[in-house]
Task: inverse folding
């Protein structure tokens, strides 16, 4: 089992959700986050005062999947979230030790 | 005739502005004395015996001797509405304008400070403020005739005493004047809050407000606005006596229609001194102090603009020609200031901001305040347009030079705009620049003013306000610092005044 965590541009969330649904992903978790990478922040001016905003708003999605789906999931996210401009985000993949469905008590791949 | 005059002046000003011509363009457009002055003189001709009527500030007993003139119901209604408008511009207008500019952890502290100051000053006004500002005393302070507003209402006759206006034989009920002026005192003190926002103890805010109101606002109001009323000017000798009984700056001939010196320079200087004495906010210059809701600030600025019609046009004390001139100037000059600030910011900083537009409106309102009943529309347009640019500099270049953490730019907008407006009132009052001139109450006629003389008089009024308010404010802050302390502990400042001073939070989302 794998946990795929992707940081994407907020307005790409719907596209990514659709793309993942199409390849059979059952559920995702989305979180509004702030962060910085190579994309520079922007400055805001209030009267005389200039503030540099380093942390830009992004959306983080977490997807738990069976290991064999990994390539398709990465491809789906990469395609859907791509704008070709700096700041499109990143995908992190880690292995997932255990999954439990709380309602039924199912574990492992069946619980995904 | 009035309309055509104003239209001509407006057209002239537009042309001059468009063509980039200097002010001389206006000279040809406004040959006649301002129509408003004529309106003001009219009652003198029709009123039977204005001379017997006691001036406003005299005890009510004298009113009983001569048949008391009945105030015009239109005037009275307008003054009550104008008073309500000024209350609205203070709470919620000013409170929201300021509140939106602070961080969300201090929102309620700002709202609470403005709200409480409004209440505190209103009570002090009734107890002794009105008497010390608007009864006869010396050139700097009034007397104690109206302590607790005594003598205004006569229970035996059921009559309310009259207050003078700017026309002979025209009066408003004194309670209307008392209430109207109470709102001026309250909003002036509340303006200072912006300078020391986000770090002052609540108790210190109240104590400072009471002290500064007593020793700076009241004498300034008396110096600039107290006079025995137009009916006292029966002949040259009586006029000399009346002028001698007036406030110090009134006697000099300083023109301040609605409070450039008394309200804005006064409050702006007190704010700057406060910013120096109290010191910078923790993290100033390092952390970002982004305004937490410019939406609130925009609402506040808009309420200020609307309320300001009561402030400025109400200062005519009558519902007549002068009130409409002040009204029109308050509308048009402010609009010009919004545009000039916006374009200046766009040009120099790259983007036209909502905060800039809102600040421009306030700057224009401040600058037109002393001038609104004394200048024509062309003069008003220029005052407004200059205010937007000059105050923009006030909150950027000048602020950097001063090096004080005047948190919400009370000095940069109110003192700078007030000084600009006060001086330009002296420039644009003359007939040749479309102004109204001034009224000669002895000969019941209107006379012109000369720019050089009037600007010098205005400059003296500005200097008086700057020095008086500066010195008094410094002493008041020091007294508060030595007694209860000015500043909250650093830990509380970091956590925010809402929870630490008031035990509540603005937003529980």
Result:
């Amino acid at each position: 089992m794998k946990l795929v965590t992707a940081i994407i541009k907020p307005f790409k969330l719907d596209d990514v959700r659709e793309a993942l649904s199409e390849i059979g992903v059952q559920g995702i978790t989305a979180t509004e986050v702030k962060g910085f990478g190579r994309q520079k922040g922007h400055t805001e001016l209030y009267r005389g005062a200039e503030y540099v905003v380093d942390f830009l708003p992004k959306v983080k999605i977490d997807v738990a999947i069976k290991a064999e789906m990994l390539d398709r999931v990465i491809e789906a996210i990469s395609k859907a979230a791509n704008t070709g401009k700096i700041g499109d985000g990143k995908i992190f993949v880690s292995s997932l030790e255990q999954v439990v469905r709380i309602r039924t008590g199912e574990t492992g791949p069946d619980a995904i | 005739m009035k309309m055509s005059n104003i239209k001509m002046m407006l057209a002239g000003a537009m042309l001059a502005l468009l063509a980039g011509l200097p002010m001389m363009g206006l000279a040809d457009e406004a040959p006649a004395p301002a129509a408003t002055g004529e309106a003001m003189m009219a009652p003198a001709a029709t009123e039977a015996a204005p001379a017997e009527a006691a001036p406003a500030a005299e005890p009510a007993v004298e009113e009983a001797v001569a048949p008391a003139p009945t105030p015009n119901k239109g005037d009275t209604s307008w003054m009550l509405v104008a008073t309500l408008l000024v209350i609205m511009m203070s709470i919620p207008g000013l409170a929201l304008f300021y509140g939106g500019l602070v961080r969300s952890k201090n929102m309620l502290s700002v709202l609470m400070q403005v709200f409480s100051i409004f209440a505190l000053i209103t009570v002090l006004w009734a107890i002794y403020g009105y008497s010390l500002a608007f009864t006869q005393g010396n050139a700097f302070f009034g007397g104690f005739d109206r302590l607790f507003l005594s003598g205004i209402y006569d229970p035996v006759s059921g009559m309310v005493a009259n207050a003078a206006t700017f026309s002979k034989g025209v009066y408003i009920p004194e309670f209307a004047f008392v209430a109207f002026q109470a709102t001026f005192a309250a909003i002036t003190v509340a303006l200072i809050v912006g300078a020391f926002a986000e770090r002052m103890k609540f108790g210190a805010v109240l104590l400072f407000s009471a002290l500064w109101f007593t020793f700076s606002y009241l004498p300034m109001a008396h110096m600039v606005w107290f006079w025995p009323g137009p009916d006292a000017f029966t002949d040259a000798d009586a006029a000399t006596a009346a002028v001698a009984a007036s406030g110090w700056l009134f006697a000099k001939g300083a023109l301040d229609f609605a409070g450039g010196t008394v309200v804005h320079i006064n409050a702006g200087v007190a704010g700057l001194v406060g910013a120096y004495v109290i010191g910078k906010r923790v993290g100033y210059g390092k952390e970002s102090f982004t305004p937490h809701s410019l939406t609130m600030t925009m609402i506040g600025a808009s309420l200020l603009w609307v309320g300001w019609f009561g402030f400025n046009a109400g200062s005519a004390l009558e519902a007549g020609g002068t009130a409409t001139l002040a009204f029109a100037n308050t509308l048009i000059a402010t609009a010009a200031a919004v545009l000039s600030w916006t374009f200046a910011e766009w040009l120099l900083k790259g983007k036209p901001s909502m905060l800039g537009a809102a600040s421009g409106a306030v700057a224009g309102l401040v600058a037109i305040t002393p001038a609104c009943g004394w200048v024509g529309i062309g003069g008003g347009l220029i005052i407004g347009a200059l205010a937007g640019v000059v105050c923009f500099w006030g909150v950027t270049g000048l602020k950097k030079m001063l090096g004080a953490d005047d948190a919400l730019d009370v000095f940069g907008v109110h003192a700078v705009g007030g000084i600009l407006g006060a001086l330009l009132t002296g420039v644009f009052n003359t007939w040749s620049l479309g102004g109204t001139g001034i009224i000669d109450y002895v000969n019941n006629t209107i006379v012109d003013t000369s720019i050089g003389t009037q600007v010098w008089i205005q400059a003296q009024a500005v200097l008086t306000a700057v020095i008086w308010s500066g010195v008094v404010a410094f002493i008041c802050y020091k007294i508060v610092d030595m007694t209860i302390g000015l500043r909250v502990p650093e830990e509380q400042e970091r956590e925010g005044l809402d929870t630490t001073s008031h035990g509540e939070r603005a937003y529980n989302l």
